[in-house]
Amino acid sequence: MSDQATVDYTEMWTDLGLNVPAHCAVLKLIGPAYEAAYLSQSDRPEGMAYFDFVMSEIHGLRIKELLDHKAAGGSVIGTFCVYVPEEIIRALGGQGIGLCAGAEVAFPEVEQVMPRNTCALIKSFMGFKLGRVCPYIESTDLVVGETTCDGKKKAYEVLGTMHPTHVMELPQMKRPEDRALWRSEIDRFVEKLEELTGRQLEADALRAAIREVNDKRRALQRLNEARKADPVPISGKDALLAVQVAFYDDVPRFTQMVNAIADELEARVADGAGVAPAGTKRILVTGSPMAIPNWKVHDIVERAGGVVVAEELCTGSRYYDALVPEDGETVEDMLEAITDKYLGVNCACFTPNTGRIDDIMRMAEEYEVDGIIHYALQFCSPYQFEGYTVEKAARAAGTPLLRIETDYSMEDVGQLSTRVEAFLEML
Ligand code: BJ8
Fold it and tell me: Which long-range contacts (CB under 8 A, 24 or more apart) does 353-359 make?
């Protein structure tokens, strides 16, 4: 990882106020974990070399790019949720960055400021901040939170005492009056960014940003479309990584690289080539988001001899499935379209959330899966609760489903592997 890279970034990390020894210790954990999970795979698409490079520079080159962007007058905006419209950030000269939230960092310190029984994702982002080990959050001009689950809502209050934070009020239902609230929150977000950046939202810039972000999502759609084939041309782990990286990489470069991988995958499909033999048990994973470097469930499934072919996750289809219509002429038209696109995401924080069940069952059919794994982080009530509803729907459709609750520690890997192996055998 970065501490082994040829360029020494110590000065940059020091200037950002990081605790450099603690930061290097985090990178030393992520590096071998990545190597063990990713570089050990055989028959990876050649294009994945780009992601190996991105991962090797995760806290190095990309941070330097962001700092250069700021030095040139741009802004960096941190987010934790797929409801925050990145098109608006880009149209106002910003780079949107999904912040680190996928590893156990400084949990003892975190438990001083929030309950122990908080989900690992929230504890992780607070740990990265409290431990001063995340160069991304330290590079941001603003973090944008949202009123999704209770844990996040309250965590942003704490974060707001340490870092500039703006919270968008996300309704919990999707009635016309909820849409009106969300529309006004989009306006408030625009105002906040205009104030921060000293720029005004212009139609041309917003139209261009919508196209760029749509292109990124279209590239991910192509990559994922190829996963419908049997044999599947890319591992679930690699496909998951592509979406995880989509949250923080440079948008046009990422789009180009993912399209190159999609070309390769389409050629593989045409040749009948895959990363696992035809007939390998195909799994759809759904539930709480999996932030980098959380590849635990995918790794367990694929080591156990199955293959993950689809993710109904915020680090999956919920991120790339829907596009913002590109035919808006005025800023108003486009903000209306953005309001609808984002309110269309089916997060378990909403009630009712039947759209998510429909998506899961549709995807199970489209990707011809043999089984579904419902993954919930411990203490993530929205997804824990919906596990029941998803299981009922899967049972009704005759699709086997395994429910997993876990966190970021590796202590339960043995036990989970045994359960996943038994599940795959039963399929
Ligand atoms: S749109 S899933 S990214 S809120 S895992 S913090 S829900 S207790 S992250 Fe999420 Fe946006 Fe919804 Fe997606 Fe709370 Fe659950 Fe923790 Fe979660």
Answer: 353/386, 356/286, 356/312, 356/386, 356/390, 357/386, 357/389, 357/390, 357/393, 359/312, 359/317, 359/318, 359/321
Pairwise CA distance, residues 82 & 96, whole Å: 11
Average pLDDT over residues 94-113: 96
Q: Which has the closest alpha carbon to 314: 400, 247, 236, 393?
A: 247
Angle between helices 251-271 and 48-56 (to 10 degrees): 140
For the segment 51-63, the average pLDDT, to the nearest whole number, is 95
Side chain identity at residue 75, one-letter code:
S
Q: Is the pLDDT of residue 3 over 60?
A: no
Q: From atom 13 of ligand 1, which residue's Cα is the shortest distance away?
A: 314
**Coil, strand or helix: which one is 90?**
helix
Q: Does residue 2 have a pLDDT over 60?
A: no
Residue 5 has pLDDT above 90, yes or no: no
Q: How confident is the model at residue 158 (pLDDT cuts 50, 70, 90)?
A: very high
Which residues' Cβ are closer than 6 Å to ligand 1?
81-83, 119, 121-122, 148-149, 151-152, 288-289, 314, 345, 347, 349, 377, 380, 382-383
Strand partners, 307: 282
Ligand 1 atom showing the smallest separation from residue 119 Cα: 16
Atom 10 of ligand 1 has which residue's CA nearest to it? Answer: 81
Å from CA of 426 to ligand 1 middle: 31
Nearest to 170 by CA among 43, 71, 53, 82: 82
Asked if residue 141 has pLDDT above 80, the reply is yes
Starting at the earlier edge strand, list the strands of the sheet with 94-98: 94-98, 75-79, 142-146, 165-168
Single pTM value for the model: 0.97
CB 377 within 8 A of CB 288: yes
Q: How confident is the model at residue 6 (pLDDT cuts 50, 70, 90)?
A: low
Across all residues in the chain, what is the average pLDDT? Answer: 96
Q: Ligand 1: which atom is nearest the Cα of residue 348?
A: 12
